[in-house]
Amino acid sequence: MPDGRALYRHIAAIGDGLSARADPFGIAAPILHAQMAWLMHPQELGERLAGLGTDLWQLQWHTWRRALGLPSMDPVKPHADDPRFADPVWTDSATWDLVKEWYLAFTHHVQDMLYETPGLSGKERRRAAFWWRKWLNAVAPTNYLWSNPIALRKFIDTRGHSLWQGWQNMLADLQAGNVRMTDPDGFHVGEDLATTPGAVIFRNRLLEVIHYAPTRPQVHAEPVVIVTPWINKFYILDLNPRKSMVRYLLDQGLDVYITSWKNPDASMREVRFDDYLLEGISELVRVAREASGAERVHAVGYCIGGTALATWMAWAARHYGEDAVPVRDWTLFTTLVDFHKPGDIEVFIDEESVAHLSAQMAEKGYLDGKDMAASFRLLRSNSLVWHYVVHGWLYGESPAAFDVLYWNMDTTRMPCAMHAWYLRELYLNNRLVQPDALVVAGEPIDLRRIRQPLYAVAAEDDHIAPWAQTFHTLHHVAADKRFVLSSSGHILGIVNPPVTPPRRHYRVATAHRADRAPLWRDRAELRDGSWWEDWMAWLKPRAGELVPARPAADERHPALGDAPGAYVLET
């Protein structure tokens, strides 16, 4: 008899070689591997099929009862976070109930089998399940006119107008090259978004530094500098007066400086990650210190801006000396430094996909923001793609004006050299957490050299920077640490102003290097409201005495333009 495992490895190697050329993002290979793995484990497959037979019998019994008009409890229920079948017609009507039940039964069983595939690594199981889930989401009955009772009802009630309007919406989406989540003309940056007064007081090829005008006669002597992510535009932290973190900090008597990154084009293909540190973060810190007269600043980093800030802090500890870093303390929002398990995004990250993406970027000189936005939307295809297809194309609903979604669609590009390095060194090789494994701007870096106190914030439902993985940051930093776990996701967990009555909650506690995420969560204090208030209680006593407020611009740092500046308007 041939060696079955050797045969499996041989076939898998052939499949990998072909998929590297025809399937660089590894869609087919993990699914093929899962199918072969089940065939190579007949005992486990038999046990699974026996369980499937029992479940299908229960579903068939439910079908007979509903067909006879008898009451019957649904044997398969949608997941708690799946709103596709929330309309009562999916339960009240026997016909539509059976459509729903058979679809859910097939979906849940396929997903469960993929997650339980014997003989595969956890990463490959997750990749196989991810790509199958995308197909299963695409063929859901809710996505098509003749299998969606709500769409049919609207078609009848509006005498076809809903479908006509949906056709117009589809044409507009095709023209835009995207399924629109919001009205693209619903907002204008500088008019109803990013309206906090301030001035651009520094500009180079990579960023503008915006200094905001004070809202109080006195401010704390040491300023706050915010490193925003360059994969999006900075104004997520200054959406409108009610949601603006910038305005909140100003009202707390803090002196605020923020990065607004340039939207790169092909001429910036050779810009490196080092340049973002030296020409970006270093310049932000220098300008804030000069303009305020303070020896040290309080640094804040969000998402990839936080990853860059952590890298810069390790670089500065080596460059200046651990006790001479010009930062008093630092804060991270939903930031990864340990990329061992980076969340759902890992389905796009392997040698073949990174090589393919790097080659594409080399042709253009940059990664188009629409490509990255499409990848992130694919991670949550039901809520970020199919929801808008159904409501826009089938129901004929025009996209509403929503500031967060407008910001999300206001994409930016990334330079080829910087992003290729970022993907390979951090995501693939995970070298940021390896002591002295990375040489950045001429210095070997080690996160353990950072001595400045850290305030770190994560979000419970974050699929871009999973909170348990962001918690690993604390294992690599020796300084005092306070950790916050906010409700909601990557954006709304951070853009979380205090309101009455409170709409969200958070957990907070001091963290230690020996802590593990689940144990920390068990002992952390649960509070209603916004973590912004806890952050202020931590930050303001460290920010120095109150001094007369400084204008947004002065003779030494004249205004090069009003906030929000010129770079944020680049398309």
UniProtKB/TrEMBL annotation:
<dbReference type="Pfam" id="PF07167">
    <property type="entry name" value="PhaC_N"/>
</dbReference>
<dbReference type="GO" id="GO:0016746">
    <property type="term" value="F:acyltransferase activity"/>
</dbReference>
<protein>
    <submittedName>
        <fullName>Poly-beta-hydroxybutyrate polymerase domain-containing protein</fullName>
    </submittedName>
</protein>
<feature type="domain" description="Poly-beta-hydroxybutyrate polymerase N-terminal">
    <location>
        <begin position="82"/>
        <end position="249"/>
    </location>
</feature>
<dbReference type="InterPro" id="IPR051321">
    <property type="entry name" value="PHA/PHB_synthase"/>
</dbReference>
<dbReference type="InterPro" id="IPR010941">
    <property type="entry name" value="PhaC_N"/>
</dbReference>
<dbReference type="InterPro" id="IPR029058">
    <property type="entry name" value="AB_hydrolase_fold"/>
</dbReference>
<keyword id="KW-0012">Acyltransferase</keyword>
<keyword id="KW-0808">Transferase</keyword>
<dbReference type="GO" id="GO:0042619">
    <property type="term" value="P:poly-hydroxybutyrate biosynthetic process"/>
</dbReference>
